[in-house]
């Protein structure tokens, strides 16, 4: 049981890029945290406005500021567009701050893959500890800087990790994975885009970035292989649908030889036994089961042809972004990882 610290003992956390959906979700969750004090909120385009003017449902009295290059806070969350954190994170670390970056800037080890999928240059040193607690809990706890996973990547990696991390011992090997995943519109961010307007999206659904989504190399890297030299066939089709939050991923997995469902269920049950936010469901999960939570729900089923169907659901703004960032922060600071997230 963690006791509430007095105000002068509390850790102060700032959000850089606090006016976007992930930034606002961070503020909502931080306000519930018993040992965190919210510091400055930075949002250049909204500087001078009150946070609650933009998000009246979250009663935070902070005024958005323009980033000046320094902060009094102990820890900074960066919820910025891709490319902007590359310069900021080294400066923050040099000034002794703890950092959790929600962009893709520090996720990929392979700089050529980064250039291909994100379109920008970065040096091989621009890599941080990957922040997926279910797979790297101890490493996260020992880190001062974390690269928070992508939303699709979270839903897909958690759906597949037991097969890759524990499958060989159980005699299970993966031949190919085909993923179709649907995201709510908040995944595209807060700025206005014609193709995401109500008139364009109502009653509509659409595939996008087919074969080129930036989370593809991240998924392969986390599963111990790469898009450059893959150890299994991987096809990922992201789609967008007219609802606000949630990612629903259907993973069709061909194993080299079929395994009994009991073996698969036990593999997943054992792998996630100490993971408070992964729930194995006996019925097929839905987006509404996880909305506004930090859970990743996983359902398992067999197709008649012997392929394994894994269905996962997460809230893209919580487990896919801000919630997972808070979970990482809790581990870094030595708090119970569920603090402010249940």
Let me know the number of strands. 14
Rg, nearest Å? 20 Å
Named CATH topology of the largest domain: Dihydrodipicolinate Reductase, domain 2
Question: Which word captures the global form?
Answer: globular
Instruction: Tell me the number of structural domains.
Output: 2
Helical stretch count?
A: 10
Multimerization state = single chain
Strand order within the widest sheet?
Answer: 3-2-1-4-5-7-6
Give the N-to-C terminal Cα separation.
14 Å
Tell me which CATH architecture of the largest domain applies here: 2-Layer Sandwich
Could you spell the SSE succession in H and E letters?
A: EHEHEEHEHEHEHEHEHEEHEEEH
Main sheet makeup = 7 strands, parallel
Percent range of helical residues:
25-40%
Description:
There is one protein chain. This protein has 342 residues and is of the alpha/beta class. Helix content is 28%, strand content 22%. The strands form two sheets. Strands 3-2-1-4-5-7-6 form a seven-stranded parallel beta sheet, sandwiched between helices. Helix 5 links the parallel strand 6 (129-130) and strand 7 (145-147). Helix 1 packs across helix 10 and helix 5 packs parallel to helix 10 (318-333).
Per-chain topology:
Blueprint (H helix, E strand, L loop, with lengths): L10 E6 L4 H10 L5 E7 L8 H4 L9 E2 L9 E4 L6 H10 L3 E4 L9 H8 L10 E2 L2 H9 L3 E3 L3 H15 L8 E10 L14 H4 L4 E2 L7 H8 L10 E8 L6 E9 L5 H11 L6 E4 L14 E7 L5 E7 L3 H16 L9
Parallel strand pairs: 1-2, 1-4, 2-3, 4-5, 5-7, 6-7, 8-10, 12-13
Antiparallel strand pairs: 8-11, 9-10, 11-14, 13-14
Helix pairs in contact: 1-10, 5-10, 6-8
